[in-house]
Each structure stands twice: as C-alpha cells, then as structure tokens.
Amino acid sequence: MSTAPQYFDFHFHPAFKQFICQFEPAYPSTRDVRSLLKPIDLKNPITDFLEEEFLHILESQACLEQLSAGKLMLGIANVAAIERMFAEKEGLFGKVLNSQFLTKPVDQTYFSKIREGKISYYQLFIRELNHYKRLRDGGQITILSRKNPGMLDAPGALTHVAMAMEGGHSLCRTLIGQPGKPDEMTVSGSPEDEPIAKDFQDHPVLSPALSLEHLQTAMWAENMDLFSMVLTHLSHIPEQLLATHAYGMKMLKDEAIFPIGDGLTNAGKQVIDKAYSIQVGGADAPVLIDIKHMGLKSRLDFYAHRRLKGHTLPIIASHMGVSGYSLDEWKGALEEAHIVRLKASNTPVVKITTSRRVAGDWGATNKTFTFNPWTINLLDEDIEEVLNSNGLIGISLDVRILGWQNVLGKGEKEEFMSAEEFRFLFPEQFKKLSSEPMAAPESFLLPTKEERHPLSLCFNLLHVVSAGRIRTDKDPWKHITIGSDFDGLINPLINCRDASRMGNLENLLFRWLPVAEERYRRENGGGRLLKVTPQGEVDEDNLRRLIRDVLYENGKAFLTNWLKGSPGR
Amino acid sequence: MADISFFESARTRLRDQAYANFVAHRSEIERVGYGIQQNRSGQLPLSHITNDIDRLSKRIAREGMQVEKALERINNVPNFQDVSVIRKILRNSSSVCRIVIQTSFGNSGYGTGFLISPQVLLTNHHVLPDVETALRSEAQFGYELDENGHIQSPISFRLRPDRFFLTSPYETHPEVPYSGRDFTMVAVEPTGTEGASLDQFGYIRMDSSLGKIIEGENCVVIQHPKGDYKKLVLRDIRLITLTENFLIYESDTLPGSSGSAVLGLGTGVIVALHHSSIPRKDAAGNWLRKDGSPVQPDDPDELIDWIGNEGVRVSCIVEAFNKLPVPDAMQPYRRQIIEAQTSSLPTMNAPISHTAPIPPAALPAESTLTAHTGTESTAGLQYFEVVLTSQPTLLDDWEQKAALLVEGLVEDHPLIPHSFDPYIRRMRYVSVRTARNPWEQAAFMESLPHIESCKPDLEMLTDIGLTDSDAPTRQGPQESELIYNEGTAAWNEEKFLKDFGQAGWVQKAKKVRADYYRWWNWLAVNCPADGNRTGKDWDAIRQNLASLRFVQLDTGYSSHSKVFSGVDTDKDFDFIDSDADARDLMDRLLLKHPGHGTRTGSLAVGGTLAADPRRLDGNGGLLNFGGQVPARLIPYRISKSVILLGRGKQLVDAAGYAIRSQADVMFMCMGTYPRAMFAAIAREAYENGVIWVCAAGNEVEVVVAPAVYPGTIAVAAVNPADQPWKGSSNGPMVDIAAPGESVYVPFIDKQGNEIMVYGDGTSYATPHVASAAMLWKARHLDALSQYDFPWQIVEAFRFCLKQSARTPDGWRTDRYGAGILDVEKLLTLPLPKKAELKHAYAASDPEPSKDLGVVEAVHFVWNILRRKAKRGPTESFPASFSLTPRGQLALQAFTAGTQARAYEAAGFGDQIGQEALLREYFNQ
User: Fold this and answer.
1) Which domains does chain B have, with CATH numbers?
2) DSSP, residue by residue, B722-756
3) What ipTM was reported for this prediction?
C-alpha cells in the first residue's frame, strides 16, 4: 500500500503569526494548544482596500493545520525575533503591522514593547520558542534533538521539526537598542522547571557567543536542540553587530534596512567559533551556520574564517535564490552605482543596479525569466562552498527571491550595499561615485503573474545544479531542497501559496523542470542537468526521484545525519 | 521634436516679447536712463537713481557696514570694486558652461547654462525645451582660454533629463502654471569625459531676496556668445529696471547668449538668467539696423540695433521652482537643489585647475560668519535641534501635525535614529524653510507646547579657530615667516631646542640617540621604542590591532607622505560634503597642505617622510610598528577647516556612523561650545562602548565639547618639562594629560617641501591617548569580554588610564587629570573588576536646556566676538552681526553695559562678562 508522499521544508515559521497575536505577561506560555494550530488571518475588512498580493503576506502560510494538510512532516522551524524596524510605524507595512485596527488579531503589546525598547530580542526568541515546546508537550509536534539520535529512524505521525534561529540578534539579552540595560522576564511557577528561563534570569547579560552556548545548554535541558542559526537578519542591529546583512526588505521605511559595516565582525567570528564547538554535558552539540541574509562580504569573510580556523561542519543556505552569477560575472554586471546618504543619519550606503542574468525564455511573447541579482542571493562561489562542505541549499518559494520580470520600474530593481562592502568589491570605482540624498525608500514589489510561475523556481534549482556540476565533484541534486520561508512575511509562488499545497509543487516540478532545463541550457549552455533516456528524452523515473529528493529525501537524510552526530549530505 | 529651427524661431518671438515688455515700461526706463546718464557724468549718485527705498535699504544691508560707508561703496562700484567681489564673480564663472544642442538631424546650436546645485544646471526653456532635446545635448565646462591664451580642454557632461527636468515655457499660457518664465532645470551626469567629476565646477547660489542690485548698478554677464569661449562682459552695462518677472539692462554691442548668468557687479550675486536681447523697432514693428534701416532676413546680429537686454529674475525662477510639482522619482534632485541653494556656503568642492586660486567660500572667511547671523531675509533652509515634550498626547499630535504646526517645515527626523535613550528619542532634527532669523524661528518653535527646547544648528568655530593656536610654535622675530593661513610653516627646531633643550625628556632622549629628542613625547609617555616592542604580548597586540577600528573625526587626511600609508582610504567618508573622499579640503586643492587631521593623525600612525634630504624626519606614530600600521586610521571629515566645524549635526552623524560601524576607539582633536546634540552622541558612544578620546581645548580655558561630557576621555597637554601647556584647557573633567606642547608634527614649507615642525595644542596630546587606548584594547581584546555592558570597557580604560598615570611633583589633578599618560604601565595594569566601575552618567540627569537667549549670546560670543577680539583693533563689527533682543538681553546680563556706543552697550566690548557667560554656559 503506497502512502501519501511527505514533504520537507528547510525554512518556515509555523508558530510566528500565532505568537504575535497574543502577548502573555508571564513565561512560560499557558495558551490553549489548539489556538496555536489554526490559521491566522491578519486581514480584516479595513485592510481589504489593500492589494491582494500584499495581503497574502499577512495570511497564514504554515500553521500546523496547513502543514498537516500538505503532508509537510519534516522541517526546520525558525524563530526570528521581530526586529525594531518592524515595530516602527513608518511605511505601509509598518503602519499595517503596527495598527490595532488594520491587523486586528495582532497583539500590539509586542510591537509597542519592541518600539520602545522594553524587551530584549532574546526574550522574544525564547517566548516564541516556548510555543513550540508547548505544542510538543501538547502532543502536536515532535521536536528533534540529538539527545535522541534515532528519532527519524521510525518517524511517527506528527510533524517533526528541528529548531533554528533566524538572526543572531536573538542572542542579545539586553533591552533592544540599549546594550547597557539588562532585560527582565516575569516567570510563573518554579524557574527550576524552566531551564531556559532560569538561565536567562541567572545570566541576564552575556556576550553573543556565550549567550548561544547558554541557550543551547538550556534547550538541551528542555529536550530541545538548536539546529542552525542565521547570523544576521533583515536589519542592522548596532548594539550587537555580528555581520553586515544583505539588503532584502523594501516594505519598511526605516534606515535600519540599509546594510552598514565591513562584513563579519569580531563578535560574529566568536559566535561562529562557539556555534561550531558547543558541547553540552560533554557531548558535541554544534549549531550549523546558515548563510542566508549575510551580505556578500560577510559570506566571503565567513568562508575565509572557516578555512583559517579549520571548521568543516556543513554550511547551509536555508531559503535562498540564485543570482545566476559568479562573483566576477556579478561585478561585470554592475550597471549603476551611487552613494546615497540617508536623510536622517547621513549614513552612506551605495545604491546599485545590476543587470539580470537571463535564466530562459518561455511563452508566446517576451516571457523572459531572469534571476534576482541582489547579493542576498547565492553567487556560484556560495554554491561551491555549500556543496563542498556537504551542506544543503534550500530554494525559497518567495517570488522576489526567485527572480522577476522586466515590468518592474528602475527604483524597484535597486539594491543597497554598505559603503565599505562596495569599496571592497569595487575598489577602483568608489571614489568616483556621485552622491545623492534620499529618504528611506518604500516599494511593495508586487509580483506579476509570470513571476509567480513555477518556472522561476525550476530555473533556480537548475542553476544550482549547473554551477555545482561545473565547480564541484558533488552531485548537486543531493544538496538541494525547498526552504519555503512560509510565514516569514513572504509572497509565495503561485499554486503553492501555503504549506497545504506542497503536493502541487511536486506536480509542478515534474511538469516544468524539463521545460526549464531546455530553456536554461538554450540560454546558458552547459550539459544536460536531467538524466535522459537513450532516446534523448528526459528520464521520467529519474526525474520523479530527483523531485522526491528535493522535496523530502535530501532534507530527511541531512537531518538524520545531523541527529546522529555527523551532519552533512 | 525641438530642433535648431525651434531655437531660432523661439528667439525671434522672444525678442518681440521683450520689446513689448520694454515698451510697456518705457517711462520708467527713460527715467532710470536719464539718471544713469547723470550718474555717468558725475551729477547724480548712483544710489539716487532708484525710487524703491525698500530695495535700496536691502542693498545697503547687504554690504554689512554702516549706512554711510555702504553707500560710499555702492556709489563707487562703477569705478572701484573690491577684489573679493571680482573673485566671487570669477568663482561663479567656473560654474557656467556651454550647452551644445544636438538636433535630431545632427547639426548643433549653442546656449549657455550654469550649475545651481552639484548636479543640476539652469538654462532657458528655449535652449532646452524638452527632454528629447536635453537628451541629445551636452554641457561643456571649461571651454575657455587659460592665462596664456591657450585653449583649455573642455569637459563634456551628458544631460540627464530622466533624472530631473523642470521647465517653464517662454510663452505664457494661462493653463500652464508659472509659464512664461523661460527656464529649464536639468540634471547633469556627475562624471564627464575621461572620468572628470562635475563637482569641481561648483554651483551658483540663487538668492531670491531683494537687495542684490538696484537700478543704475552695473551688471556682469558670463556667457558663451555664439558658442565662443567663455566671456565676462565687463562693459559699463547698467540695470535699467525690474519688472514683475524680468529685469531689463543695457545692451552690449552683441546680443547675449541664451542662458547666460547675469550678476550684479556690486554684490557678485546672480540677479537674472539672460534670455533675450531687445531690438529697436520702427512704428511698423520692423526691427532696425544700427543705421536705422529695417533688418533684412539674413542680417547678422552685429548689424541690429539692440536697445537692451532682458533677463528672467532669479526670484521668479525660485518662486516657480518652489511651486511647480515634481515627480517623486525626481525629488532627490529637487532636494539637492534646495539644499544647495539654501546651504550656508556656496560650495566649491575642488579646484578648477592646478593654478586656480582658493575659492574664498571654501575658506573660513568673514563672509561665512555673515551668512549665519540670520539677518538676511532669504527664505532659506534652516536647521534646528529640537527636544520634544515627553507628554504622549502632544508627541502623537506632533507626529501627525508637525508640518501644520511649523510653517515651512521640510524635514523632521530623529536626531539619532538608532538611539533608544528615552531623552534622545525625544530629540529631533528639523529643517524649516523660512525667511526668519534662525533664533526668532527657534523662539517661535519653542513657543509650541509640543516642543521643550529648540535651538538653531549653525556652523561653529572650533576652539582652535578662536585663537589660531595649534599652529607651529611661534618663533619670535621670525614669526612673520610662518604663514598659517596658507598652511605652510618653517622648520623651528632651533627655537624648540632653545626653549626646551634642557628639559628632562629632551635630555633623556639625547642619551638614547643624538636626534631622538624629536621623539621626546615617546619617552614622556613611556612608550617602548619601536625596536623594543617585541615578545609575545606585543605580537598579540599587533595581531589584535588589525581587527580594531580606529576613527578620527577631523578635517580629513592629506597625501603627506608622513601619514598617508597609515590612513585607511577604503573606509573614509566626508560628512561635510557627503562624499566618499575625506581628503582635507586643502589637499583637494592640490596644495598638499597637511591639515589638522594629518598633523594629529601623524602622532598615531605616522611613518617616515618619503623624501628627507635635510634629515628633518622624526617622531613616528605610536601605532606604527617598523613602518607597518596594523590598525590604519579611518578619517571622517567633520570640519570644513581647522577653524570651522560645520553644522553640529554633521559631527553627530559622523560619530553615529562610527558607533554603528563598531568603532573601537574614536578621537577628536578639536572642540566647540557644548550643545545638547553633542551631549547625546557622546552618551551614545559611551553606552555602545566606543572609547572617544577628545582634546580638552586650546587657549579658551574652559574644557570644550565633546571633551566636557562624562562619557568621553578628556586630554590636557604638557611640555617636555612635564609642565602643563599654558594654553591647555583644564578642569576637573580632564582625565589625563599627554605631550602637546612642542610636539614634532608634519607640515610643508613655503616651497612645498614636506617638513616636520614643533607645534602646540591639546590636539597633539589627544592622539597619544587614543593610540594608547588602541594598544590597551588590543592587549585585552579577549579579556574585555568579561564585562557585561559596553560602557564598562570605556570605564575600564579610564580606570587603567588614571591608575597608571605618572604624576610629576606638584601635579594638579583637579585641573589636568590623574597625571601624564604612561603607556607601558597602562598595558601591564590588570583589568579592574566590574564592581570597581561606575557608570559615568550614574549620578547625572540630562542637563536642563539652556535658555534660547543665552545660547544665542554664547553662539555670538564664541563665533564672532571672540574671534573678532583677536583681530587688529581697527576692525569694526559689521552691523549684520546683530543679536535678537532676547540674545542681547542675555548678553547684557553678563556684561557691563555702561558704554554709550551701540555695540558696546550690547556687551560687545566686555570680555570679562563674555568669559562669565561662557563659564556659566559651560558649567565651569
């Protein structure tokens, strides 16, 4: 008897929207577990005047009911403490998120605490993390931990998640924006029963590296385990800078969206060293580093630091797209650059426009698919580093990460880079740049129908395979999976708008991968990326296996190895 | 599609229009014409020609002197003009370009235009009527002859109407707002042929207020007549009359070039955009030749009898610009124009040629100060630091209605956007377009219930600017050879040895090596000689230094070989001009002048002189290890010159950027009077663990900002005899002292050779301590993670610094800090325990805001009176340096006020009272 296929997601946020909808004064959470399973619709009649595509960002995409419906049985649940810029009321997105009228279910307590600096990112993190514990203890999910290495040998019927941290700012235990002020958290019951809370009470201030070590130790005591962490997220966190982030957010009007700095900092290196060497109770309990959101210079620094220190644990890229370029090609694709000084702080950043690499053409008229060349996406060197480290790449389902069409206006194609990062990459050009002042931009980047087409996902998958084959001796198909970023405030691919539609994705890939391969090769050359029969047709059996690998098996194998202490693929 | 035929036909119609306008004002023109005739023959003073008393009074006010003297100057302009005004006109001329109009058929025509912001030029609509024409046209700068009559290489720049294009047609259309003004503003590509930068040509500021010129005064036209080399028309051309939108002036023999700049000779300020010449006509409407016969179709311009010229008035262009809508995408350029046109100083970023004179505006001249007294009626952009109320309802009301509450409000931003300090979060930086005096505007804003305090953000002199200190040690009879204003100096070792040859550290240095006395400061701070900095600990320090960030807030860097290799030119930034090049202004002018930043930076990262035939070198930087500088200096330019700091916000922005870029140590070798915004950013730096080392101050006695704040490290200066330098500021807030008198620093001599010179100042003491902070942090890089909060790193350094300080006999710790810096001891001292560290602000609440009148009086005393007092006794105080009544009352309260003369009655002459005012303000 065949069972329904199961799916793996390398990056999603199944409890985020439920978390922000109810503030609880005390820790731990006492919420009704059932309230954590249901979809949350942040829309209400007042917001209906907004663009449908914008609204979809606010809809639930990966709540447990949706996971169950979509047979999404395994994945990495990420907790991303809401950054300060999301709590500012500037910009449409800020206005919507911070309005008790526009997003009625959202509890504004969290947002006002964040805005006023009355809570730490660390507390936000452990509070949301506690929701997963509650779901586990309520029999709704299984949380993977290396304390029990055989958990995936005979997985049960519940969705299995490994826990991850999206953004190293979550390690910061002092009040937001105030590195000199420790945070406090009201804990109900005995702290001895809550090792994470007790650790926080006993150690209200720790360096980020030590904060990570303490967190992992305390999680271990609660039978949880931190699988990975992303060093940076979407904004510049001056009070605890680990690395320069990659520009990736246009829906907020806040200067913190702009990258500052020169790549990996000393504190960032200390966190990496600690993450790779944590032991709990004498057992190895390292945390993998996820390169998503790191700026290009930060990633290059990261690879150099790994080599310097001899770190060999796998690198993961949990929810990314590809730029389609190698570093040199990307530099050559630079079209325009201007120094911009931000209005409020006069901070210099560099605004750049890069020509987009064509992935392939398809359709009757001018349906040219291109990759997104922003440096938040993978360059070929990144692909090489991940594969050579036996790591895993999750391709995002966010349409803007996957690429876009020509209909976009110029302003919407620009990305921003820290002035120092630009200088590093283009040392000869920086002094020649002209300067222009600007207010923080706001653009909604609503995707077109074509952009939500599954072909853009296929092209990204195929480019990883192509670059991987050219640059490594690995089988790239074994190092790719899907990292949807559902409920991470994304706008997903058409026909796979939430986790309940994962089955659609399998069919779509089966239908479109052969088309994409032919178009990709026509545009970009190279050998066959899909196995063919002696007759020259795409081998459908093999294709089905590849898709299964991408949608489940690669992720499962990676996690199985991780549980058994030998992470990698 | 526009083409040359459009240009020609438009010009013809314009000439008819201009003639009609001329005729409509004929009686006034005849009256003025008669007056001009009388003036030329010496029968009537020029100032008697106009009937407009208001215009005349504003014109007089512009002269900034007593009425009688101003009139004397205005009336003499046709024959005598100050060189400074001519220089101003010449400087403006560099912003004028030839516009080459390419048609779709490949032929071309020419117009003239000029930059009005760093990247936008102004010309006539009939030159560039539409985007398509502009796209095909280009701007050529430097199309002129040099001093030897040789043709210079013009530099061409593409026009970018896609970025900015704003036009008013030459014909008036009722349905088109502000039409009939015949101007076009268009963006220019910032990089031209062969990578040349547009910013070298500066831009012309358009002042829309009255008083730039009066009837009968001379006009100067800068143009490319018929596309020829750039010309200045210096004939005796007089302004005849001003109509609503235009001004009419006398004709040259040739018609002017469309788009030329028309300037008033009396003020050197632009008064109009030339757009048409006016032909004489007969009763039938025919244009007439000079011989009286009708003009024939192919007649050259030379044959036509021109009776006048017409220009579009600057005020009418400014009005249209302010009112016309601009698409969102073009707003950055609109803002650029607003900023350029309302900036306090006309900008000239770089030289026109190697031999060009230094633009007056680029130097801190008196005109700079005039621009900030707020007495002009210009509706300019003014900046204010505002503290909002803590009352939540009023705060919300402000957020929603600020633009309604403050007329002309342009921008309203958090002063330090990333700060979470409750008090700092109420601080805003607000720009307002207003014609009011800034102090009056601030008073108005303070009257709102939403605003707790409002102070204008005006440019300030540094402590060094007040006194001309920091220059090489004076040489007695040879002092005249030290031309400080040019930035050159003469080698003065003889004087140094005469003064300090017997001083303890000089004697000890001589025992080390014959010329080691040039390094006396190394011995004084007990820093091991470079060759002795070996061993495991020093290896670790060197290695760790490479991962630290070392920021200097100063005048920028130069290419002086002593320092250049120690400067991180990959991370510098200019917060004055907002570009990526923090080179010192003087260095950009190719004078290779080692500015203040270079001299002070040398003591931290200085290496060796590249060419040293006279063997003058000596005294490397404390962070220079055998020619290697593991932690290069990152210069942020925050000061226009050693004298003029710039707006306070520029310093705040630079320090804020350093904080957010994770600076480890930051130092600043100049200061000024305290401001709320400086206190805020000093606290931010402290809370974020940035060790900010600051000069205590020179010759002003009081400790200046930012050294005055609890979070910074304040440094006083000593000499080779371990005695405090007599000019060093002092007081209980000083933390430490270091060598600052007769310290050997880089300069150039009058021949342009790189030399070293002994100089004085707490500026020189400061880099010693900043370098020591870097060495200390590198020494303890890992161990510092034991501290919970970033501020504890600053306090741990202060603790170690003071504990390790050397105290000579009779040392006044209440005035010059804990003692003199001892590097070796500092580095060997164990780190203090957390419990030993006390937060610098633990016992202090935010200081209550000072009264606006007091702040105005302090600004006035600091920026104007103190500096003026140092000048010769014959200098008078220009009338424009007036205080508001509130400021006068505040000043008078501190001064005697018994003298009869007007300025003395305001306390201008009472230096003791001024000192009292400053000490009260400084809390010292």
Assistant:
1) 4-91+212-318 (2.40.10.10), 96-205+328-342 (2.40.10.10), 366-458 (3.30.70.920), 465-836 (3.40.50.200), 852-922 (no CATH)
2) SPBPTTB--STT--EEEE-SSEEEEEE-TTS-EEE
3) 0.90
